[in-house]
Structures are given as C-alpha cells and as structure tokens.
Amino acid sequence: MRILVTNDDGINAPGLKVLEEIANRIAGPEGEVWVVAPAFEQSGVGHCISYTHPMLLSKLGHRRYAAEGSPADCVLAGFYDVLQGARPDLVLSGVNRGNNAAENVLYSGTIGGAMEAALQGLPAIALSQFMGPETEDLPSPFDAAAGHGEAVVRALLDRAPWDQDDYRLFYNVNFPPIARDAVKGTKVVRQGYRKDTFFGVEPQMSPSGRRFLWIKGGPQHMPTAPGTDAAANLDGYISITPMRADLTADDALEDVRKALE
C-alpha cells in the first residue's frame, strides 16, 4: 500500500510523527509512506491553494518533503511531482493538534488537505486530536490518537463506503481529549455547531506604535447538539463524520426553486 501523509501544523509537528507511525503500520513492511507537509504551520488556511505564486519543495529525507504551501498544495505536490502521478492508495491528513469538529471544519487546513485528495479522486481521511485539561497531564497529548488511530483507519478502509462520485466521500475523525484507555468507543455523527462560539479579532499595539489584529477563537469545550461531532468527543467517543466538498444546501433547493423560477 502507498500512503501519502500531510498535515497543517508543519513538517516538525508531533502529531505528524504520530500519523507517520500509524501510516507505517497500515502500509506494512512492503508498503510506502510518503510525507509531504508544510514547511511552516498552516493552521486555519482551509482549502487554500497557492494559485498566484510558486512554492519551494525541499527533500528532507527518504520519502520526506517540506513544501512552502498549504496542506492542499502539499497533496498536489505529493501526487503530481513527488509521486509523478503514481496514485496513492490513501491520503492521511493530521494528526492535528486540536479538534476539527463543528465550525472548525470550515477553517481547517487538515480538512483542506483531505478535501483536495478527495477532489483528486483519492481516498482520504483527516485525523485530529481534541485537546483539554486531561490531555495536558498525559505524557503525550496525542495519546488517544496514537492508541486508536490505526484501528479507526483500518475500519474505514475495510468497511466504510468509498464511492466514485464527482464529489467523493472523505472522512473526518476526531479523537476525544482523554487518555486512550478512557475512550468509550466510536460514533458516526454529523458535523455539529457550537452556538455563540465565533472567531473574532483582538487588537494589540506593537512597541513601534502600530496597531495589529490577532484572530481569536471561541471556547472549544462547548458541546454541540446530540448526535454531532464535538458532543461525541466531549462525551469520550471518537467521532467519524463522512464529508463531501459539495456545499449545496439540498434542504433549501426546492424552496428556492419555487420562490424564484
């Protein structure tokens, strides 16, 4: 099996090392694991691609590359340049430091990498580790992902649907903010929504007197509705959410058609 691995926390991120270990176990001794990850952190870039400027791609080691671009750029670079169009059997993105549940999905570079892989017709899974007070006290905050990541990926490969639709399925996996031994199980759920939790800005003056704005996120431990991702994670479960890049609001389509046609 040939696996392409990327992330949005950067080539030196500890979560990437966790995912490489998972990928190597899944690929097996006869398989190949190729890593193409951003040279610098790309959190929050979503599905951005570097359409207006070139990117530097550097070989760091055997099957290991850093690209000065987004996770989606890394998938494109990995597929078309590093692998020379040889199709990966699987693309894994992560393991992200922090959850990519609820509204975070829309901003996530981790999701963006998996989404680009799906748009290229490749099977893809995004993996993220929810952080919290309990993970701070663990030897590794990625303990749940390290302990259960391989089994979750294998279950998706072996039993989940992998269609060939134009906007093909990819999967978003979030591990709960607890130790591996405390994980209660796995739930397949919808993307949730944290009410009254929004990104905003916080102004700050520099020593030179210039005014800058920091992007500021909202509370991450607000539960979403039952049967959705963040609610499952905060209840101790691994969440799996099937996704597509198609953003059509199917529930509103007929009402809009009746109103306007």
Automatic annotation (TrEMBL):
Pfam families: SurE. A divalent metal cation binds at residues 8-9, 43, 96. One of its GO terms (molecular function) is nucleotide binding. It comes from the Bacteria. GO terms for cellular component: cytoplasm. Its EC number is 3.1.3.5. Coiled coil: none annotated. Its main location: cytoplasm. Keywords: Cytoplasm, Hydrolase, Metal-binding, Nucleotide-binding. Binds 1 divalent metal cation per subunit. It is found in: Cytoplasm. Its cofactor is a divalent metal cation. It catalyses: a ribonucleoside 5'-phosphate + H2O = a ribonucleoside + phosphate. Signal peptide: none annotated. Residues 3-195 form the Survival protein SurE-like phosphatase/nucleotidase domain. SUPFAM superfamilies: SurE-like. Belongs to the SurE nucleotidase family. Nucleotidase that shows phosphatase activity on nucleoside 5'-monophosphates. This is 5'-nucleotidase SurE. It comes from Roseinatronobacter ekhonensis. The lineage of its organism: Bacteria, Pseudomonadati, Pseudomonadota, Alphaproteobacteria, Rhodobacterales. The gene is surE.
